[in-house]
Design goal:
31% helix, alpha/beta, binds uridine-diphosphate-N-acetylglucosamine, 420 residues, 4-stranded mixed beta sheet
Length: 420
């Protein structure tokens, strides 16, 4: 198993390029199931979750090539409709194959993804919506077995809670359904927007894109022809590197970003004392004269993303004032706290709120990555800690960050990937 060894207390400088968004890439890959011919996807990030989704599609009968950042996926040859446990257990987002498989084949079996480190993460809202569209669903032997012998039918769905992959699954199911599907209380994350835009350009008329009310006009099982797609920039990867610049109080530049997706993150960093130069598709963070604590409440887009909560906690540790972080989306997303405390952090947890004392003197330690974003918080803390930090179990990081240590090295950080 690999681990990262990080020598802290160094300034960063320079420029790096941000990759395509993992969370946009995964639904787009699942969407290829709806296509009658090969789909070319550019700016696809070479992260393990993307490889897992490609493997799942291959296991269903699709073929693909993936060179550089460009993949060509031909899902027309899919014949198997079972998303097996062995692949699904590696990545919860495999559930994104449920909607498109059911829409195209009228039946499928997808292994239940189960809970994960950050919480229980049920899929009840995905299933309820599919049932409203005419699917019959049973849970047997750890699998969701869904059938829709007469095809899925458009209807009105109101999500009790905003769900990103739930919205994506139902949009893809509705794309081939009969008639109109209305989704009320839909997620409006940029990744959901890109999926809707691609479908809309491929013959599935979608109204309300970017709003919380979507109307999808289904094609009645007619498969789609999809033009080349370029995955949007990863706002969470960009946000994580902005935090790397902030925590080391350094000037760094990120290329290939979309600032409009980063507003909540930029505004919080401004509140904390950092300044920015915005280029057309680049952003430079400038050192702060004095850093202030902050108050964060995670929420759905366009609010502050839960996927940036851990990184801001690391940053809050070195701000010159206390901060509070309220996690509203996931019940157990504070796994990084105990590891940060091992590095000398003063954090008090009470239910869903973490109170973070500022001005912490962090020291290097052996720490354990527990989930994708928690791991990046440990790396950020290590960049300012005195001495050496070893971040173990970095397979979590490899699920979602392209060459994290290489990009940090490019910025002058002293980071090495080593074997246990
Ligand atoms: C997606 C993102 C993840 C991000 C999260 C919230 C992908 C691949 N992953 O995850 O990085 O942290 O959005 O922005 O895009 N819920 C239910 N029942 C359901 C579905 C969800 O109760 O059927 C709850 C969840 O437990 C959670 C909340 O709804 O409390 C939001 O979850 P959801 O938006 O579905 O997260 P994911 O789509 O799994």
């Amino acid at each position: 198993m690999d681990y990262l060894e990080i020598e802290g207390n160094n300034k960063l400088s320079g420029t790096i390029t941000i990759d395509g968004a993992k969370n946009a890439a995964l639904p787009l890959l699942a969407m290829t199931i709806l296509s009658q011919s090969e789909v070319k996807i550019e700016n696809l990030p070479r992260v393990n979750d993307v490889f897992t989704m490609l493997k799942l599609l291959e296991n269903l009968g699709a073929s693909y090539s993936f060179e550089g950042n460009c993949a060509k996926i031909d899902a027309s040859s899919i014949h198997n409709t079972t998303a097996i446990y062995d692949i699904v257990r590696k990545m919860r987002a495999s559930i994104l194959t449920l909607g498109p498989l059911l829409a195209r084949f009228g039946k499928c079996e997808v292994s239940l993804p189960g809970g994960c480190a950050i919480g229980q993460r049920p899929i009840d809202l995905h299933l309820k919506a599919l049932e409203m569209m005419g699917a019959e669903i049973v849970i047997e032997q750890g699998y969701v077995r869904a059938t829709a012998p007469e095809g899925l039918k458009g209807t009105t769905i109101v999500f009790d809670k905003i769900t990103v992959t739930g919205t994506e699954n139902i949009v893809m199911a509705a794309a081939l359904a009969k008639g109109e599907t209305k989704i009320i209380n839909a997620a409006k994350e940029p990744e959901v927007v890109q999926l809707c835009e691609v479908l809309n350009a491929s013959g599935v008329k979608i109204e309300g894109i970017g709003s919380d009310e979507l109307i999808i006009h289904g094609t009645e099982q007619k498969l789609l022809t999809i033009d080349t797609i370029s995955v949007i920039p990863d706002r969470i990867e960009a946000g994580t590197y902005l935090c790397a610049g902030a925590i080391t109080n350094s000037e760094i530049t990120l290329k290939k970003v979309n600032h409009t997706h980063l507003f909540a993150i930029i505004l919080k960093l401004q509140e904390m004392g950092f300044d920015f130069d915005l280029g057309q598709d680049s952003i430079t963070i400038k050192p702060a004269v004095k850093t202030k604590g902050t108050k964060i409440i995670t929420s759905e887009y366009p609010g502050f993303p839960t996927d940036m909560q851990a990184q801001f906690m690391a940053l809050a540790l070195v701000a010159e004032g206390a901060s509070s972080i309220d996690e509203k989306l996931f019940e157990n997303r504070f796994m990084h706290v105990s590891e940060l405390i091992r590095m000398g952090a003063n954090i008090i947890l009470s239910n869903h709120t973490a109170t973070v004392e500022g001005n912490n003197e962090l020291n290097g330690a052996d720490v354990m990555a527990t989930d994708l974003r928690a791991s990046s918080a440990l790396v950020l803390a290590a960049l300012v800690a005195k001495g050496t930090t070893k971040v173990h179990r970095i397979y979590h990081l490899d699920r979602g960050y392209v060459g994290l240590e290489k990009k940090l090295q490019q910025l002058g950080a002293k980071v090495k990937r080593l074997k246990e």
